[in-house]
User: What shape does this take?
Amino acid sequence: MKVLVLNAGSTSLKYDLYEMDTEASLARGRVERIGDGAIHVNGAGSVPVSAPDIGGALTAVLAHLSRAGGPLAHASLGAVGHRVVHGGERLVQPVRVDAAVEAVIEEHAVFAPLHNPSHLAGIRAARALFDVPQVAVFDTAFHAQMPEHAFLYGLPYELYAKHGIRRYGFHGPSHQYMAACAAEHLGVAAARMRLVTCHLGGGASVTAIDGGISVEPSMGMTPLEGLLMATRAGDLDPAIPLLLAREGQTAAQLDELLNRRSGLAGVSGIGPDFRDVQAAAERGDVRARLAVDLFVHRVRKYVGAYAAHLGGVDALVFTGGIGENSALVRERVCAPLGFMGVALDRERNATARAADEGGVVDVAERHARTRVLVVRTDEERMIAREVVRCLVGPTAAVRSVRSRPIPVGVSVRHVHLSRAACDALFGPGYELARRRDVTQPGQYVTRETVDLIGPRGEITGVAIINPLRKETQVELARTDALRLGVDPPLRESGKLAGTPGLTLRGPHGQVAIEHGVILAHRHVHMHPDDARSFGVGDRDVIKVRIEGDREMTMGDVIVRVHPEYALDLHVDTDEANAAGLGNDSVVAFDGLQVG
Ligand code: ADP
Assistant: This one.
């Protein structure tokens, strides 16, 4: 099977074509300066092409690969693999792309604003052009099994539970590739090794890998955390951007500072390229020397920390432009690590050329306890392997990593209106205006409210949730129902037969509905990935555990699964008050309710 791997950036498109039966690389190249005098660069040189956008670039690549004598002239493509930087917690395996996957990639653009939108544009262009399976492979996925204590920040827990603010880690395919190379080269199963892998390029990260699983990457919620990089600051006291913000710097300026003006470039004042900085350091430039020292110091610090985390290291692996090519950096990182069994063969280290030596070179002394490997990384090959694994592997792809906390949404009494009711209450054809979104996609609270009139009393200013529905529905808490003097049953939304009615009052008039008043049955909305990770299905009934002053277990929670649902437990105000829950709360999944 031929697999085309695409890495779509904002102004460039990199591609690699593999024959996966042999893993032979058939072609690789890139289109640069998309939208502005684009050129197509490949082994044979560079030619100007018409590529006003990513679709144009892809068309040019396809024409090139299908030309007479080209690798796709007489053969067809089996699949396309897309590199995607951020898959968040939902996309933790390579997945076949469909509309739901595209939506999740789009959602995670908040964490990867420079990358995910470009990847998505590439995916959409490729889906329009190629009628073959398309698989997204995520930079974050390799790190998806790290334990909670490694991925949480020391922030209020709700920031994680509600907003996904946590460490994700990046460069996944590269670290995964290094682990695979180490296992193959050393002839030891990945499951039996503890590795520290260092990807040192323009972006740089270290990962602790235990038994083939990433247990901690140095990058965090975004690729900014951790090592000093070409232009990124890496670790710093978060009080620094706060101080600068108080002095008037905007978010955009701070972003620019931390992502593009820091790192090797910022410290040295020379530039982002390690070779330039190193050359200046050798000429005696003090700040260039400092930048190199800082770079090495950070790598060593992480290697040491991860060795402690793993309880020892079987092999230390280097890759990336710097890791693969700079004998000096490897030597300086390793120099004080004798205590953990690291001893470099200095000559072998100085002459190692992984690219010309089968991709992997062991530069440790023959008898050293810890192996030190230099690897020529090949993220694209790793992505191609992941594409094949996704397409031919077991279908239950999404791992259950752990039981996610379930965020709570407290539903205050509200009304869903039909067109006819809306006309009667606000005037014919009246369009209700959006005030704020609610957690479920596409639904929002309107600026307008209605009054409810029951046999015993009234409640004014009741929220309306749009869009309009076929039938008007009023969702109350038991306390509201008592105040109005109605006796609605516990029902699922939309199941209105046999329910009582009520009068609604708006600025234009009143409507008396014959039925439609319910106490909403508590339920939890889930994406299919969440359902899989909890091991539950649509319409199952589960229990949730609530911690805190009013600790309790709440049963009879109906599971509702849909690709457009975000994980959310819906309870009404009475239930929330009884359990001490608010919109910042989370609850724990406590198993299926049997019987
Ligand atoms: P990216 O992460 O941007 O894909 P690379 O992995 O190619 O980049 O790494 C680029 C970095 O590698 C640059 O800083 C470059 O200076 C550095 N590099 C390349 N060759 C050498 C070398 N021989 N010695 C030191 N650094 C090198």
